[in-house]
Specification:
There is one protein chain. This protein is an all-alpha fold. Helix content is 77%, strand content 0%. The protein has a single domain, classed as Hydantoin permease. The longest helix is centred in the middle third of the chain and has 48 residues.
């Protein structure tokens, strides 16, 4: 339990330390008027209480991932604990905070529009289609999952098909109605159920003191199927560490936030909270696998067993409702986000119901087609989930690229002084662009931080548009040269760490 406890404390400390640092690097301005007031329309741009925004954001991003993903990721051993902690603090929460702040600064713009600002118009057009497809996949995936769980809790005649219809009708209403009518009213109740579940499991973990892996045991891979930690674990535990889907949800709350000073509690804090939920379920799943073996591949079975054993009948029902609420509240906002993305690039106002229906009807028809396929084909759901998992993490890459360009263009370009560099601005820049902590050290030792920064200073001092282009080309060239010399070293490192005994 020592490693688990330390990881839990690290997540909390990370919010108050690294979260504060990221906030300072971005430059939060509480006096700036937010889009909730400048573009208030009574539908999507509505000032809401901060506590309610936090609840909505938390539920938006906390789908099946931090529960089901953490359960399956727990099979990899203590490495899952470390990935949840490091991923949440340095990657996921930073990713969510910066994407949310960027939307705040640009009138609540959707993610594709934000990416287009910093990666170019061609990339924006690609991201419009890519993101909408991802949102529809998320919506479809998060219909089948909770419907199946609800079917297990209700009489046989209320089967999965019935609950799919009910959940989908709810999605339609939540997508079309103003954000304060359904989402703003029921999300706090769902959040209470989800947080009750997490706190209940956490308390029982400390009471029962189950045997959990310790970091002193090493990072050995304990997966029964022999799947490699890299990259499988990082894809399995996505929503509990870093998820591109989150960046599509942040603009929804950016349109409702009263002041920038609440951005860190809402965006960074919600992701840290999700990381805590993922850590708790990874620990609980480890206990389950220790007692029952690792042959179980249905995360819902693990959830049902743990909640009934530790929380009793009533507590178990509340916990299951929390687990059901999480994907439902991600699915409805996925469709809502898709509507707003389409509305943004079509420049179509959303005050009137007719305009909203013009966007939603084709979108729901596509989603229904995906659902029918997933129900007809026994492997359909797994196929959809694989595409969702890949596109979700790919979207995170695109978002981090855009955030990196923003940091170079708006932060480093305007504050090229040694104090900022030594404060860690360049560390964050490279951390985001590479995603590998160990590569950072080799990168800077190879090229030298001083010469790297000086080269950027020279390039960025030229005519603005041309300077950014040249700086980007220089970064790309530098990165390519770096990769060509380091790939073999990185491959050897990874295979030696995660695949001991492999000779090829």
């Amino acid at each position: 339990m020592i490693t688990f406890t330390c990881c839990l404390i690290a997540l909390i400390v990370g919010y108050f330390t690294y979260g504060k640092f990221v906030e300072r690097v971005f430059g939060v301005d509480p006096s700036r008027v937010t889009p909730a007031f400048t573009k208030q329309d009574g539908v999507d741009y509505i000032p809401l209480p901060t506590w309610k925004i936090f609840m909505i954001q938390f539920l938006n991003i906390a789908g099946l991932g931090p529960i089901f993903g953490a359960i399956m990721g727990a099979k990899f051993g203590v490495a899952s604990f470390l990935w949840i902690v490091l991923g949440s603090i340095f990657a996921g929460a930073t990713h969510d905070f910066l994407s949310g702040m960027l939307s705040l600064r640009h009138d609540g713009e959707s993610l594709p529009e934000l990416i287009g600002r910093y990666l170019g118009n061609n990339f924006k057009q690609f991201m419009r289609g890519f993101t909408v497809i991802l949102m529809i996949l998320v919506g479809a995936v998060f219909v089948a999952g909770p419907a199946g769980l609800l079917a297990k809790l209700t009489p046989e005649y209320l089967d999965a098909t019935f609950w799919i219809i009910v959940v989908f009708i709810y999605y339609i209403l939540a997508t079309l109605l103003p954000v304060d009518k359904i989402i703003g009213k029921i999300y706090p109740l769902f959040a209470i159920a989800l947080l009750f579940m997490a706190v209940g499991i956490l308390v029982m973990l400390f009471i029962n003191q189950p045997p959990l892996p310790e970091i002193t045991d090493g990072l050995s891979n304990t997966h029964p199927g022999g799947l490699p930690i890299f990259p499988i674990m990082f894809v399995s535990i996505a929503c509990g560490a870093i998820s591109g889907f989150h960046a599509t949800q942040s603009p929804l709350m950016a349109r409702c936030m009263k002041s920038e000073k609440y951005a860190r509690p809402v965006f960074y804090g919600a992701m840290i909270t999700e990381g805590i939920v993922a850590l708790i379920w990874a620990a609980a799943a480890t206990y389950f696998f220790h007692n029952n073996g690792m042959e179980e591949n249905n995360a819902a079975v693990v959830v049902d067993s743990i909640t009934k054993e530790w929380l009793g009948a009533v507590g178990g029902v509340l916990a299951i409702l929390g687990v059901i609420a999480a994907p439902i509240t991600s699915g409805d906002t996925a469709f809502r986000s898709a509507r707003l993305i389409v509305a943004d690039f079509l420049h179509m106002e959303q005050k009137t119901v007719v305009k909203r229906l013009m966007i939603c009807i084709p979108m729901f028809i596509v989603a229904i087609g995906i659902l029918l396929y997933s129900q007809k084909d026994k492997d359909g759901f797994d196929m959809i989930w694989r595409y969702f998992a890949w596109s979700n993490q790919t979207l995170a890459v695109f978002t981090l690229w855009a955030l990196t360009v923003y940091l170079v263009k708006e932060i480093i370009c305007d504050n090229l002084d040694s104090r900022l560099i030594h404060d860690g601005g360049m560390f964050y820049l490279y951390f985001c662009s590479s995603g590998r902590v160990w590569s950072f050290l080799r990168f800077f030792s190879t090229f030298g931080a001083t010469s790297y920064i000086d080269r950027f200073r020279d390039l960025l001092s030229l005519e603005k548009k041309e300077s950014i282009k040249k700086a980007g080309l220089h970064l790309a060239s530098l990165f390519c040269r770096y990769c060509s010399s380091e790939l073999k070293h990185l491959y050897a490192f990874l295979t030696g760490l995660f695949l001991p005994g492999r000779s090829d």
